[in-house]
Every structure is written in structure tokens, then in C-alpha cells.
């Protein structure tokens, strides 16, 4: 993940694509990123035949329509191998396919609008009570920001015991745990709301970033002439006992990459408009969340 300029990896260390890919792959392999439920976790044989068959026929149709050559076919195979070698399958799938799965899931869901999880969530982060300050370096760069709100049920009942799992990039566009720059756990935490479901989180405003450009996903994106940028955003998993966990992201008004998100995850309903608090350059945004009854178990 980089900001305005792509930063080359050191020749003595794994590239950013490899570092991010390895961590995202391990998380996906452990099933830790499957938080979007509900579901049985099983897929029957007929569904496999139907869905996989349709996907393969779509690829075959593209080959026929565009008269794909053997040179292009071999290039495609090399690209698939490179995605596997770097561990970028979670990145590629989450960037280019997850938003469609999320749209399907959203048809059956109530409560606040959500969006994709993405590949950069990590389990086991520090537990904090509201009001909370996310772990950060003593000289953490960026604009100080407060995110505050309340978690309620669909009938308006405040949800005591609700938690807000939050993570985002730093001011340079790096996620802790997926790049060597930020320390482990930087700008990540699970915040426990008060007995009225309210939360107040002190952090730094994140930066826009590109997906890793030194790996096959970024190289394909650039070769196709597509924008590799993600607007600045904050990731959230909002949970409460007896309710479906909400997977969401919050974006910022005026961001130049809104409407051109490489992951197609931004939505107008998820845009914040932070305002100055009057304390230096600090800003504040308020956002409430409504959870529907149910469980992801």
C-alpha cells in the first residue's frame, strides 16, 4: 500500500506485495476473515457445479469472443502462478470480486449499510474501553481525529456490550501487520462501547493508497489502465451479542478517489464529513450503527 508515490521495496527484504500477500493468505487460510455470514460453511455439489460451471463458461466465452491467442493464454498462466507465489489471492479476490458477493448478501440484510471486509483485517487486537485512543507511535503523523457514535438495534434499543473493531492505514497509506513501516497493532483496536452502546475513538485520519504495485494484482491493474487507488477509509466490524456483525468502511467527503475505488467498496451512505473541534487541527465525525437481530455463528 502506498500513497502518492510508489515506494520500492528494499532488495534485502520481501516486497510489499509479498509481505501483504503472505499475511492476508494466512488470515484467509485460517478462516479468520470469514466474518460476513451467516451461513453453514458448506456448499453442496450442485451449487459447485452451477456456480463454478457458470464462471468457467464466462471465461470460455471471453476467449471465444476476443479470440485469445496462445501467447495471451500462456501470459495468463504465468500471471496466475505469480499471484499464487506472492500470496495475493486474497488481495485480488477482495479487490475485484468481493463487492459483488457483498451486494448479494446485502439484499437479505437490515440495519446499517455495510461494504466489503477486504484482506487487511487482523484478529487478536488490543481491547479498549470507550473513550479510547488507538495504539499509535508517539510522533504518529496525520490529522488527529475522533470517531464517535452509538450502536443500537433495529428497534432503537441501545446495545450495551457492543464492540467496534477498527483498523486503518496511517498517514502514509500503510497498514500495520502488512508492511514493515508501522509497528504491530498500530492504529488497530477493538473498542467496547458503554452501557448505552456509545463509543468515542481517538485516532488519525487515514490516507488514500494504492494496492501494492509491485505484485501481479497491481501490475495487472496498471496494464489494463485501471486506477489502483483506494480512497481514504476506516474499516469497522461492529458487533453485539445476539446481532449480526456489521462489516463496513467509512470514507471522507472530498476525497479525489471517491467514485473510482479500485475495490468498488465506496458508497455515498458511508461518507463522513468531519468537522473541526476547535482543538488545534483535530476533527470529529459522528456515525451511528444499527444492527439487525441474528448471529454470524
From TrEMBL:
The keyword Metal-binding applies. The keyword Magnesium does not apply. Residues 147-175 form the Intradiol ring-cleavage dioxygenases domain. PROSITE patterns: INTRADIOL_DIOXYGENAS. Gene3D superfamilies: Aromatic compound dioxygenase, Catechol 1,2-dioxygenase multimerisation domain-like. Residues 1-42, 263-297 are annotated as: Disordered. This is Catechol 1,2-dioxygenase. It comes from Actinomycetospora straminea. The gene is catA.
